[in-house]
Amino acid sequence: MFESLTEKLDGVFKKLRARGRLNEENIQAALKEIRMALLEADVNFRVVRDFIEDIRSRAVGQEVVDSITPGQQVVKIVHDRLVELMGGVSSQLKFGSRIPAPIMLVGLQGCGKTTTAVKLAKLVASQGKRVTLVSADVYRPAAREQLKVLGEQIGAGIYAAEGMQDPVDICVRAVEAARRDGYEVIIVDTAGRLAIDSQMMDELKQIKAQIHPAEILFVADAMTGQDAVNVAGRFDELLGIDGVIMTKMDGDARGGAALSLKAVIGKPIKFVGVGEKIDALEVFHPERMASRILGMGDVLSLVEKAQATMDEKEAKDLEQKLRKNEFSLADFRNQLNQIKKMGPLQDLLGMIPGMNKIKSLQNMTPDEGELVRVAAIIDSMTVKERHNYLLIDGSRRKRIARGSGTTVQDVNRLLKNYVEMRKMMKRMTKGGIKSLRRGHFPF
To answer: What is the predicted pLDDT for the residue at 361?
Structure first.
């Protein structure tokens, strides 16, 4: 996400940093390029106008002109203003005092409400709350069946509503059932339409009046750009929403809707969908997103992903193996599994500060297939070979290559990289090993 915008802004800031001194003319030229980059990223033109004017008033001040590193100072101003533009701080989900707390998802057809409902249920459940789901979509074929199948995958409760056709009645009864069964949160997946119409809005208003949701979240498709912002504004006007979940952010390299939404309708983005997997829903952090847009990485999110995929016991076991230099190919295989759980390699690289500035990595898409090949090679080894790589002689390498559908050269390259990694780990400081307990991976 924001790939094109990040690239253009990086070019602007590179020019600014190259100048020893800045004057109003330099800054005006940079602001013109920033303005074009934002417009090309599909940011609302009024938002761009106000954004640029605010940056100009801050950047031409004495503080920047007299700064030892004026270019960096302008970057900081842009960063801070981006954070403000996206809401300043992350907005928490409010459950209120009622049990169960109804969370109502609304939006147009095709925006991803049903899958988002399940993703949100998984995220809420990870906070220790008992969650159930209900589909109020009686119009789309198999909508309720889709929610049931996905909900069962994460172990959430499901209100079946068999034989019922009144969406309002379904929601009322689902809330009553959730209360009886001891659920703390109920997520309501409502029906969508291809466009806003009075029938849909009347139905949503009735559901709202009957179940009194703790939150109404509008699900917006980031791929639709400014249309998503306009529709969100209309829903807020007619129904009243508390926040937005922006889906398909992984497929929108421009990201203009995310930058425009808070400024245009005054409602925060609370979550972003960053993939098709059930766990691909993240809390939206304006400061972290601003850092990623400016190519500064997002180390906090990277660490959180690592912590979520590696428990304390695994980290301690790995620490002991590293201390004793017993990190085997079997351990290497386990770590590859952990990395795959963290998400696409392209996204992980984007969270590492400065990665976008390494020329050898620019315009290069990480080969996800390489992880599959490495795993296949290790899986083709015997248990003894995985725990003692020195046993793997020429004939064994040929056998492993045949068994994994790879070449002897692939096997040799894996073993060479593994040996280099062991050497690196042997040199790790005590502090570096301790960092594993906080969720950091050694590679």
So the answer is: 40
- The structural domain count of the chain equals 3
Residue 2 gets the label, from left (phi > 0), alpha (psi -120 to 50) or beta, of left
In angstroms, the CA 64 to CA 420 distance is 46
CATH code, 330: 1.10.260.30
Task: Give the three-state DSSP class for 218.
Answer: strand
Alpha-carbon distance 317 to 33, whole Å?
51
CA-derived radius of gyration, the chain: 25
In a domain, 93, yes or no: no
Q: Are residues 136 and 180 in the same domain?
A: yes
Spans in the chain with pLDDT lower than 70: 1, 20-22, 61-71, 251-254, 295-326, 338-369, 424-443
Asked if residue 91 belongs to a domain, the reply is no
Please name the residue that has the structure tokens 């991803």.
112
Q: Give dist(CA 78, CA 205) in Å, integer.
A: 40
Domain housing 63: 3-85
Last residue of one domain, picked from the residues 85, 119, 136: 85
Owner of token pair 């096997």: 411
Of the residues 57, 85, 113, the one at which a domain ends: 85
Terminal CA-to-CA distance of the chain, rounded, Å?
24
Helix (H, G, I), strand (E, B) or coil at 187: strand
- Return the residue matching tokens 């939006």: 107
Task: Tell me the C-alpha distance between 334 and 248, whole Å.
Answer: 29
Q: Which pLDDT tens digit goes with each residue over 119-155?
A: 999 999 988 999 999 999 888 878 888 999 999 889 8
What is residue 406's three-state secondary structure?
coil
User: DSSP strand E in 344-431: where?
Assistant: none
- Exposed (0-12), middle (13-18) or buried (19+): which is 368, by Cβ within 10 Å? exposed
